[in-house]
TrEMBL record:
Residues 18-78 form the HTH tetR-type domain. Keywords: DNA-binding. Residues 41-60 bind DNA. Coiled coil: none annotated. The lineage of its organism: Bacteria, Pseudomonadati, Planctomycetota, Planctomycetia, Pirellulales. InterPro entries: Homeodomain-like_sf, HTH-type_TetR-like_transc_reg, HTH_TetR, TetR_C_34. It comes from Rhodopirellula sallentina SM41. It holds the Pfam family TetR_N. GO terms for molecular function: DNA-binding transcription factor activity; transcription cis-regulatory region binding. It comes from the Bacteria. This is Transcriptional regulator, TetR-like, DNA-binding, bacterial/archaeal domain protein.
Length: 221
């Protein structure tokens, strides 16, 4: 990884501060892609962004705060993709089409899935209550258009049911990402006949999960 460091001047204007924040988030994203969460520490982020570690604390209270902000950024892209796919569904009440749309929207969202899967266990630690509250407010705002589109696609779901279904599906599906994209050693093991039945394709598995889950809610209502 070659990092061409930028020479930063002191940020005085809002647009300069926004530029620093964007650089920090981009650095964190690159490290996440290349080295995983383990390699996305404050020192590494600072080096990748061309900033000193103390400068990071001017903009973020911790590594976890940086990754929460990065998750919000990735959430915007995912939510737009999912809503667009929901809007393209031709037949109202088509659970399979909704499930396929959900799975397809996540299939290439490595950052979003990786970050979401670690939200409760990692990122919501080492940050203050206000940071967490602000994250949740912004996330709910980001996904609200998807919740509304889900209610339109499956009108038998109430708004509350659509909201809860969205939350539970995201938690479940993103948690599958690591299992469906295992290490090289696990991939070798999965080639053995005795383990083939526990090798899962992410998109197919998420679609099946979403379909069964949504159908269950509709049957119960």
């Amino acid at each position: 990884m070659v990092n061409k460091k930028k020479t930063w001047k002191r940020a005085r204007k809002p647009e300069q501060k926004a530029e620093r924040i964007d650089a920090i988030l981009e650095a964190a994203g690159v490290l996440l892609d290349e080295q995983g969460l383990e390699g996305t520490g404050l020192n590494a982020i600072a080096r990748q962004a061309g900033l000193s570690k103390p400068n990071l604390y001017v903009y973020f209270e911790s590594r976890e705060a940086i990754l929460l902000r990065l998750l919000l950024k990735e959430s915007v892209a995912w939510a737009k993709s999912f809503k667009r796919r929901l809007d393209q569904i031709e037949r109202v009440g088509d659970v399979d089409a909704v499930a396929d749309a959900f799975a397809a929207s996540l299939a290439r969202r490595r950052r979003f899935c990786t970050l979401s899967a670690s939200l409760a266990s990692v990122f919501e630690h080492n940050v203050g209550p206000e940071t967490i509250a602000q994250f949740k407010r912004e996330f709910l705002t980001i996904v609200q258009p998807c919740v509304s589109a889900l209610s339109e696609a499956l009108p038998d779901l109430s708004d509350e049911e659509s909201s809860r279904a969205m939350a539970m599906l995201v938690m479940s599906a993103t948690g599958m990402w690591a299992h469906c994209h295992p290490s090289e050693s696990v991939q070798i093991v999965y080639k053995q006949p005795e383990f083939e039945h526990i090798k899962f394709d992410f998109k197919e598995t998420v679609s099946e999960l979403a379909g069964c889950f949504l159908q269950g809610i509709l049957t119960r209502t």
